[in-house]
Design brief:
Layout lengths: L80 E5 L7 E2 L1 H4 L5 H8 L6 E7 L1 E2 L4 E7 L5 H15 L7 E6 L1 H15 L15 E7 L8 H4 L7 H5 L5 H7 L12 E7 L7 H5 L9 E5 L22 E7 L14 E5 L2 H10 L4
Parallel strand pairs: 1-3, 1-6, 2-4, 3-5, 6-7, 7-8, 8-9
Antiparallel strand pairs: 9-10, 10-11
Helix pairs in contact: 3-4
């Protein structure tokens, strides 16, 4: 999503946002050198808690076109409405102000980075929600991720897409899976196992995911799997949710086209590097960024670091779709010794429309 020769890791966009909560609990001890490749366990088919997959002949939503589609907007660099979508919260309630950098991220994006009031913090949870806009159809931690994706898709459609207005999304952790199911479900015109539908189309130009478990979360998270925390079960590697909604559709597209950037960290104890970068994708996202383990960017910091005292001092590797780098193995990727922080990278990624 940058112009030729412009790299989100270094170049600024023009200036003109409990219990065992993975984002806050201390990380377990980790072996240096193993954080890249934590193996996924064999999934026991008999204990797979994930929702049934939509089959190849799954319900297509007949009559989903609710009228003439608004003309697809053209792709362009610029400050479009920017959606911030949070990750899993163990109690099903989120304070969006504290979640996004203790209230620092929104003003950073609006004022320092130039979005000028176009940043919107959303929640897909039906309780709490301080500092958030709650989307209609929101649920709890026992609701399937794809059901939340349906609610998110309809919100984007009714608020923006049907009026011809494109949006960009920065999603942290599970928020990236919610976004993926929103776009995939709309693209395929699926119906979820609970009967939820998807809108006829979406206009989402850019998505940047921060520490999203595209291939599942680490083993330290799985102990939270239960019927009341069904979303945790779905984020176990190899779950039917992963096999049906995520793995086959590595680069889902809205009607105007969607440019994806996956950002991960070697210091993240919740989502391992391969999962955050979606290295096993059936079709790779366009851009990948890896903060090295020495960055100190754990799972929670990936949604909160803007420009702190370290400035441009985060070691980072990167790979783009039009480069010769191996998108499934970061060993040989170009490296920047002093790169920008994750919110800087994500902001640049969604500002620019294409390479």
């Amino acid at each position: 999503m940058t112009e030729e020769g412009t790299d989100p890791a270094t170049d600024p966009a023009p200036v003109t946002e409990e219990g065992t909560d993975p984002a806050t609990d201390p990380a377990p001890a980790m072996d240096e050198g193993t954080y890249f490749t934590d193996p996924a366990p064999a999934t026991d088919e008999g204990t797979d808690f994930a929702a049934p997959a939509p089959s190849a002949d799954c319900d297509s939503v007949s009559g989903a076109d609710l009228g003439s589609a608004a003309a697809a907007p053209g792709r362009s660099n610029g400050y479009k409405t920017l959606i911030l979508l949070h990750g899993f919260k163990v109690n099903g309630s989120v304070n969006c102000n504290s979640y996004w950098g203790d209230g620092k991220v929104e003003p950073y994006l609006n004022k320092t980075r130039g979005w000028g009031g176009k940043v919107r913090k959303l929640t897909y949870y039906s309780s709490g929600g301080s500092g958030c806009t709650r989307i209609p159809g929101a649920g709890g931690t026992g609701h399937a991720i794809e059901d939340l994706g349906s609610a998110f898709a309809w919100y984007i459609y009714n608020t923006y897409s049907r009026h011809g207005v494109p949006v960009d999304v920065i999603a942290h952790s599970m928020g990236g899976l919610v976004t993926r199911t929103a776009i995939t479900g709309t693209q395929k015109q699926w119906r979820t196992a609970s009967g939820r539908t998807f809108p006829p189309y979406l206009y989402i130009e850019d998505v940047a995911t921060l520490s999203t478990p595209h291939e599942g979360a680490r083993a330290s998270v799985w102990k939270g799997c239960s019927t009341s925390r069904f979303q945790v079960c779905q984020m176990i590697p190899g779950s039917s949710f992963m096999r049906s909604w995520i793995a086959p559709y590595g680069n889902p597209q809205s009607r105007m086209g969607t440019d994806w950037s996956a950002v991960g960290s070697g210091a993240d104890w919740v989502v391992n590097t391969g999962s955050a970068l979606n290295t096993k994708a059936s079709r790779h996202p366009g851009h990948k960024y890896l903060f090295l383990s020495g960055s100190g960017l754990d799972h929670g910091k990936m949604s909160s670091i803007t420009e702190d005292g370290r400035g441009f001092n985060y070691p980072i590797k990167y790979c783009h779709y039009n480069a010769s780098c191996n998108k499934a193995n970061w060993d040989g990727w170009p490296q920047i010794a002093r790169g920008a922080g994750p919110l800087w990278v994500a902001a640049n990624a969604v500002y620019y429309s294409s390479w």
